Amino acid sequence: MQTKDGGFFMIHVVIWLIIFAIYYFYHVYKASVEEKEAEEEQFFHDLMNDEQNKEDDISIAELVLTTLRKIGCTPETEKRNSLNYAYFTYQGEKFTIESNDKCFFITIYDTWWHSISIYSDVEDIANLHKTINMVNQYVNCTLVYTTNKEIEEIGVHSKRTVLFVKEIPEIDKYLLCILNDFFKAQRLAMTELEKCKVIENKIKKNMRKKVYIIGMIVLVLIVIAEGFVIYNLYAFIKKEENMYAHYEKEYIKRLSDELKLERKGLRHDTRGGDFCPACDSKDVAEIRYGLYDSKNDVWKEEIESGKVVLGGCMVGEDSKRFYCNDCGYKWGALELNEAQ
């Protein structure tokens, strides 16, 4: 029995020793782990304090270069007087950052991302002005344009001035958001320029259509006016031709009548004054020339009876011999010896 009780006691002692060992080693390990974690935390804390102290001494230009390297850019630097310039490329676009160590603000430039010729149409230049004014109302950066006479182009540029200090949390993401605003401004400006071109082409198309319609109307009016002028000219010519034909006919008739009269006169000259060659009247008188003697009863009686008419004192080559009392026609050659 004693042996059994002694063995049972030894078993209990061993179990308690194992439990105590486990408990001891657990607390020792936990204390060592906690101590190690505390040491690591203190190490990182001291490290962060060292970096913070280092950043407290960093300049704005250095902060710009450090941030650009964080976003994957490789900047090139230049210093002009008190200004520092960093040139870099982001998403294929060339940017410039201007900084001053005495100022907490930086200015970002995106130059010559669009250009047109200085000899462009007035409409294109006006559309560019209109687009720049419109885009400046909706974007954070400012759009401006300049004229370069050497290359004969008008260039469009963007710029933005922002606060840039080490106290800004996640400053690299802050810079990325600012740079992305430049691309938004470009897309908006190019979209607006395309709209202006579409509207301008539509206006030109409508204008060409209106000009075509007006031209056709003017052409029709010109054709109508020419037709009216040609018709009146044709009518005038026909009228003149008819009038000329009438006058010609009358002239020919008159010449024919005169020719007939002359022929009759020549025929009747040989027969004397039996009848008028113009109207065939037999009431014919003899034309007597010379000074009228009122005391001569024979002359007086012949004149009153219509057998004689006075021809005056002057006798010439055109003086006629006979006179028709009905139509007044004169004919017959007068010989000078007869007149005498």
Brief sketch in words of this structure:
With about 350 residues, the chain is of the alpha+beta class.
Q: How many DSSP-defined strands?
A: 10
The radius of gyration over CA amounts to 66 Å
Q: Choose one word for the global shape.
A: rod-shaped
N-end to C-end Cα span = 224 Å
Structural class: alpha+beta
The major sheet is characterized as:
6 strands, antiparallel
Question: What is the average of the pLDDT values?
Answer: 82
Beta-strand level of the residues, as a percent range?
Answer: 15-25%
Main sheet strand line-up: 1-2-3-4-6-5
Topology summary:
Blueprint: H1 2-56, H2 60-70, E1 76-80, E2 83-90, E3 93-99, E4 105-117, H3 122-135, E5 142-148, E6 153-163, H4 171-269, E7 284-289, H5 297-305, E8 308-312, E9 320-324, E10 330-333, H6 336-339
Parallel strand pairs: 7-8
Antiparallel strand pairs: 1-2, 2-3, 3-4, 4-6, 5-6, 7-9, 9-10
Helix pairs in contact: 3-4
Question: Which labels suit this protein?
Answer:
single chain; 340 residues; alpha+beta; 6 helices; 56% helix; rod-shaped
Q: What does this protein structure show overall?
A:
With 340 residues, this protein is an alpha+beta fold. Helix content is 56%, strand content 21%. It has six helices and ten strands; from the N terminus they run H-H-E-E-E-E-H-E-E-H-E-H-E-E-E-H. It has helices spanning 2-56, 60-70, 122-135, 171-269, 297-305, 336-339, and strands at 76-80, 83-90, 93-99, 105-117, 142-148, 153-163, 284-289, 308-312, 320-324, 330-333. The strands form two sheets. It has a six-stranded antiparallel β-sheet with strand order 1-2-3-4-6-5, covered by helices on one side. Strands 8-7-9-10 form a four-stranded mixed β-sheet. Helix 3 runs antiparallel to helix 4 (171-269). The chain is rod-shaped. The model is unreliable at 267-271 (pLDDT under 50).
